[in-house]
Amino acid sequence: MPNLFSTFTLKSITIRNRIVMSPMTMYRALDGHTSDYHVMLAGSRAAGGFGLVFLEQIAILPDGRTGSCCAGIWDDGHIEGLARVTRMIKEMGAVPAIQLGHTGRKGSEKKPWDGKTQLPPDHPDGWQVRGPSAITYGGRYTYPVQELSVPEIREIHHAYAAAARRALAAGFEWLEMHFAHGYLGASFFSPIANQRRDSYGNSLENRLRFHREAMDAVRTVWPENLPLTMRLGSDDLHPDGIQFNDAVWAVAELRKHGLDLADISLGLNTDAMVNPPFNEEAFMVERAARVRREVGIPVGVSWNLGVPRVADQVIRDEQADLIFLGRPALANPHWPVWAARELGQKDPYSLMPEDWSWWLRSRRGSAGSEGWPPAEYPRDPA
């Protein structure tokens, strides 16, 4: 029976456990370039025991960023900064992963702590946002959306392929495409945002065309032996939006185009959600489990899984294959080590670099002197 600390193999890549640092926008890049900050962020989490480490959604084009301080991979000049990150992740024992994306009509934002409102196209830090249809998201996203032409869609697909080539050159070993959270791919899939009448809109089949063609473009440059995964917006939580049955069908279709694992999340194509479950523990798990059962594809899942016994049970019950952690990874860089200790694993410090683990095993000191409170749960006899 697998558990949170079992290894997981996908294609030629084996990660040391089932714990993933989820992509999280940090607003720390300059002209798309990553920095020492990103090396620190990713390296510390790899040293803390995470098996698979993402940075943030990495923009394939300048207008694909959330804000002007977000990381990008639209230029060969971005490769070396990202390569520093991948080298550090590997040195600390984890697998480096990249999430490629385009924010679409939810781009051109201020930083969250500056209000997270959308900037106008003529602002020095803003730009003209684009989407499948000329439909403004609403709420804090107030500026007109430019409808993408078919040639522009094809240019975006070429940009995905070029970004994948650069990701490989930078040393990434796992590639995820971000088609959730109201960003460009999610908006093509959702009838709330996509009201086109051409081959990219109207029917469910057409609304998935953007995803299929983007995956096909990436597959031309991304090696077959390396994982290609997708974060899919599986539900808009609105009667006019994506329904979960649509997503189950979509994952099955995308599997035919080389999808190796589905990272199941929400569509978030509107703020007018019905009964949003954001305060509920592990609320996405049953959705992910259904995709896993019905499509027969490995799945990852996120949202409110920071309690170790809950995350571990999801894996033990084979409801999902990977646990994606965002806020817990920010709050505790050593969450996997802490979780292993809480769950009674035999050697929690084995998840850390050898020099650290040696000192922590060999120089225990007085009770509690390592800085950990007493473990909450008894040791697992297994």
Characteristic key phrases:
TIM Barrel; 8-stranded parallel β-barrel; 31% helix
Can you walk through the features of this model?
With 382 residues, the protein is of the alpha/beta class. The protein has a single domain, classed as Alpha-Beta Barrel (TIM Barrel), CATH 3.20.20. Helices cover 31% and strands 13% of the residues. The chain has twelve helices and 13 strands. Strands 3-4-6-9-10-11-12-13 form an eight-stranded parallel beta barrel, surrounded by seven helices. β3, α1 and β4 form a beta-alpha-beta unit. It is globular. The mean pLDDT is 96.
List the helices and strands and how they pair.
Elements: E1 8-10, E2 13-15, E3 19-21, H1 36-47, E4 52-53, E5 57-59, H2 79-91, E6 95-101, E7 130-131, E8 146-147, H3 150-169, E9 174-179, H4 184-189, H5 204-207, H6 209-219, E10 228-233, H7 244-255, E11 261-265, H8 285-295, E12 299-301, H9 308-316, E13 322-325, H10 327-331, H11 335-342, H12 354-362
Parallel strand pairs: 3-4, 3-13, 4-6, 5-6, 6-9, 7-8, 9-10, 10-11, 11-12, 12-13
Antiparallel strand pairs: 1-2
Helix pairs in contact: 1-2, 3-6, 7-8
Summarize the structure.
This protein has twelve helices and 13 strands. By secondary structure, the chain is an alpha/beta fold.
How many domain units? 1
Q: Which structural category fits the helices and strands?
A: alpha/beta
What is the CATH homology-level superfamily? Aldolase class I
Major sheet details: 8 strands, parallel, barrel
Distance between the termini: 10 Å
Q: What Rg is obtained from the alpha carbons, in whole angstroms?
A: 21 Å
Q: What do we call the CATH topology?
A: TIM Barrel
**What's the architecture in CATH terms?**
Alpha-Beta Barrel
Count of alpha and pi helical runs: 12
Q: H/E element string?
A: EEEHEEHEEEHEHHHEHEHEHEHHH
- Main β-sheet, spatial strand arrangement: 3-4-6-9-10-11-12-13
Estimate percent helicity. Answer: 25-40%
Shape: globular
User: What is the averaged pLDDT score?
Assistant: 96
Q: Class in CATH?
A: Alpha Beta
Which runs of at least 5 residues are low in confidence (pLDDT < 50)? none
From the structure provided, what is the oligomeric state, counting identical versus distinct chains? Answer: single chain
How much of the sequence lies in strands comes to 5-15%
**DSSP, total strands:** 13
